[in-house]
Design a protein that fits this description.
alpha/beta; Hypothetical protein af1432; elongated; TIM Barrel; 9 strands; 2 domains
């Protein structure tokens, strides 16, 4: 297999808040940093995908704490200095620790202010000797015995080190990690965990304020309104429900944001916005809901982008966008996804993909999910079924991430808008 992928997976604390991301790498049959040490070192140092990541750090890794595994070669080449030390955790494994220069190298990076994490920590002299330079200890909950885990976590906490549980891919392991009082966790179960269901008006307040500004303009821009609504899963869902309600008595169903905006009209939009502002005034969105809104936006863009390369797809790009967008609605609205999807018209292929993972749409949807989860073997299989060249996936993924980060920055800039004045304007 010659496929090369980069993906980031969330690391969450015990309250399901994201504390950072692990940048996971795969290529030439080797997970980054794994395999034969010397071969892995040489390969990783020269690999164009890793170079892509370092060249795009300003756009892609900005504003987050990123855990990245570095081989001895990359450490000696001073590769970590390409990254902002406030946004990077230098992650190392045993191939680095056994190197005779490891101690000196890590101590130097630690003096410069870089944080250090150790993968698969062990009770061995070479690990214990490095504790002074280590900030994070990562322990594998799939392979370690509970007593060993307990001892490592206790030692870590006694020395003011943070302990991260990895490989948490089952609910049982998640509960064990909570019981043993780790500081953070990562794995497929962790990535999909939510703090709690949000309320039925689970849209992002700052984005909603942008919408309020747009609809009360003297000459509202329909395209701008469409863009604002299209980045928010719950706003999109609510608008489509209204446009397809009995009030409008339409012969054909409305299946896109553009159609919904034109159906309701500007006056109807203003009324809808005012009602939303009133209903949500006492229910600010929690952090977990914002996280899933951002995830829905990422999936929407990724599914839409995959459509440019997938062969023989029975749906349009806009259908694929909605498929990704609505994939998290059951986290944002306290109801089963099947029940939610019954409320709006969607092509059956998209519904089957979201609910049952069937058909070619299901394959495309699963490809997006598997890339998100770093399921390397499945990525290759699913991409092959769709006729997508695997060498485009990493660029697509990070292009989508860049666009989502740009949109999110725009959204969050609306936080300074005073909602009272906007609500008054809408009422008038």
């Amino acid at each position: 297999m010659s496929s090369k992928y980069i993906v980031r997976q969330p690391i969450k604390d015990r309250n399901n808040k994201i504390v950072g991301y692990e940048i996971q790498y795969y290529g030439e049959n080797n997970a980054f940093g794994g395999g034969d040490a010397e071969t892995a070192n040489d390969f990783a140092a020269a690999d164009p995908i890793y170079n892509f990541l370092t060249l795009n750090t300003d756009k892609l890794l900005r504003g987050t704490l990123n855990f990245m595994t570095f081989t001895t070669t990359l450490l000696m080449k001073k590769t970590p200095r390409l990254f902002d030390k406030d946004e990077l955790v230098i992650q190392i494994d045993d191939s680095v620790i056994i190197h005779p220069l490891a101690m000196h190298i890590l101590q130097q990076y630690a003096k410069e202010g870089y944080k250090i994490a150790v993968n698969e920590f062990q009770f061995a002299p070479r690990y214990l000797a490095m504790l002074d330079s280590i900030d994070y200890i990562k322990v594998n909950f799939q392979t370690m015995q509970e007593l060993t885990l307990k001892n490592i976590i206790e030692i870590a906490h006694s020395m003011n080190k943070k302990c991260i549980a990895v490989g948490v891919d089952k609910e049982e392991l998640y509960q064990r990690a909570l019981k043993l009082e780790v500081d953070a966790m990562e794995g497929t179960v962790v990535a999909e965990k939510m703090a709690q269901k949000t309320h039925n008006s689970g849209y992002m307040q700052s984005n909603f304020f942008r919408l309020m500004v747009a609809v009360i303009k003297d000459e509202p821009d329909v395209e701008e309104i469409e863009r604002i609504i299209s980045v928010d899963a719950t706003l999109t869902y609510g608008l489509l429900r209204i446009a397809n309600s009995r009030y409008f008595s339409l012969r054909s169903k409305v299946t896109s944001v553009r159609q919904a905006v034109m159906t309701i009209g500007l006056n109807g939009l203003k009324q809808w916005v005012y009602l939303l502002s009133a209903s949500n005034a006492e229910n600010p969105m929690d952090e977990g809901a914002e996280e899933f809104l951002k995830l829905s936006l990422m999936r929407a863009h990724f599914c839409e982008s995959l459509m440019n390369y997938a062969k023989n797809m029975p749906i349009s790009k806009s259908d694929a966008y909605l498929m990704g967008m609505f994939s998290t609605l059951n986290y944002l609205i306290d109801a089963p996804l099947e029940e939610i999807l019954q409320q709006i018209p969607m092509c059956q292929e998209v519904k089957d993909a979201l609910l049952h993972h069937t058909g070619r749409c299901g394959v495309l949807y699963d490809l997006a999910l598997c890339y998100e989860r770093a399921d390397w073997a499945q990525i290759d299989r699913l991409a092959g079924e769709l006729g997508i060249q695997t060498n485009v996936l990493t660029s697509l993924y990070f292009s989508c991430m860049e666009e989502v980060n740009r949109i999110w920055a725009e959204i969050t800039q609306a936080q300074g808008i005073q909602p009272e004045k906007l609500e008054e304007s809408v009422t008038q």
